[in-house]
Amino acid sequence: MTNSAAELPDDLAIRPPRQERSRRAWARVLDAGVALLEDCGYEGFTIAAVCQRAQVPPRAVYDRAPSKDALFLAVYEHGMAAIRADHAVFEDPDRWRGLPAAALIEAAVREVAAIFGRHERLLRSVVLISGVHPEVNRRGSVHSRELGERFTNLLRPLGSQFAHPQADAEAALRACFSTVFSALVIRVAYGPGFAADPVDDEAYAGHLARMSASYLLNPAMAAMPAPEMPARGERGRAPARVVDNQRERVPTEE
Predict the structure, then answer these.
(1) Beta strand pairing status for 246-249 and 240-243?
(2) Closest Cα partner for 122 from 88, 89, 81?
(3) Can you give the residue ranges of every domain in the chain?
(4) Under the phi-then-psi rule, with left for phi > 0, alpha for psi from -120 to 50, and beta for the rest, what region is 245?
(5) How far is Cα 101 from Cα 218, in angstroms, rounded to an integer?
(6) 10-78 has which fold?
(7) CB-based contacts of 65: which residues, under 8 Å, 6+ apart?
(8) Residue 70: which residues within 8 A CB-CB, separation 6 or more?
(9) Of the four listed, 44, 68, 75, 137, which is most buried by Cβ atoms within 10 Å?
(10) What is the pTM of this model?
(11) Burial (0-12, 13-18, 19+ Cβ within 10 Å), 243
(12) Phi-psi sector, 239: left (phi>0), alpha (psi -120 to 50), beta
């Protein structure tokens, strides 16, 4: 498993508690920090607010974390640990045994959507802050790629059933995950009505699941050619239109 928090500089490193009482207090700090991020986002994340929620004095934080950013990253990893624990389902053979190809793909996509749904409030905060916080962006990329590897490892044995040429099967599978993941990130960060009329989470997960199975297994989807695009700056070439499934060139005036 990748360690996203490896080799931190001193100003971000956490001094681990040694005594049981200190460990309990630090656990309350981390839990309170996650709850604060869920409720108030990064804008409301202050050491004072965390201490108030955790019911600990400021020293309980400053003894462990040298700065607000160090505390925030520790809270981030604490929250992400619960999300990463959910990723383990993709390596549980009993969860997937006996499913035919289409059902397996759809179930895997629904599981990714379910993880986003269970942790929606925390993910919203960390996705939004990742655009301006390089370290959160870096760690988020590590966690996302880890989930992508588990998803693709689960579905890779289906490669011979994919409608795509064998040489393109891996790229198609990774494109499938990337599309699903990106759609869920946008939905969590900006809400279900950001890019289209909103639908409930169950319906949306079903749409993503069926789209993914169709993309990977449907020969018509795999064989669909990319549209012809004129070269930039090309002149004198008429745009194409489709008439009775045949391309014809539309006359243009010179």
Answers:
(1) antiparallel
(2) 81
(3) 10-78, 92-221
(4) left
(5) 12
(6) Arc Repressor Mutant, subunit A (1.10.10)
(7) 14, 15, 71, 74
(8) 11, 12, 13, 14
(9) 75
(10) 0.81
(11) exposed
(12) beta
Which amino acid makes up residue 8? Answer: L
For 115-150, the DSSP string reads HHHHTHHHHHHHHHHHTT-HHHHHHHHHHHHHHHHH
Q: How far is CA 21 from CA 24, 60, 232, 247, in A?
A: 5, 11, 67, 75
Task: For residues 83 and 119, give the distance between their C-alpha atoms in angstroms, rounded to a whole number.
Answer: 7
Place of tokens 């003894």: 63
Residues with Cβ within 8 Å of residue 23, at least 6 apart in sequence:
17
A 10 A CB-CB count for 200 gives: 9
Which CA distances in Å does 37 have to 26, 44, 113, 201? 17, 7, 21, 22
* Cβ 146 vs Cβ 87: under 8 Å: yes
Digitized pLDDT (tens) for each residue of the chain, 254 residues in all: 445 555 667 677 899 888 999 999 999 999 999 999 999 999 999 999 999 999 999 999 999 999 999 999 999 999 999 999 999 999 999 999 999 999 999 999 999 999 999 999 999 999 999 999 999 999 999 999 999 999 999 999 999 999 988 889 999 999 999 999 999 999 999 999 998 889 999 999 999 999 999 999 987 655 554 445 455 444 444 444 434 444 444 444 43
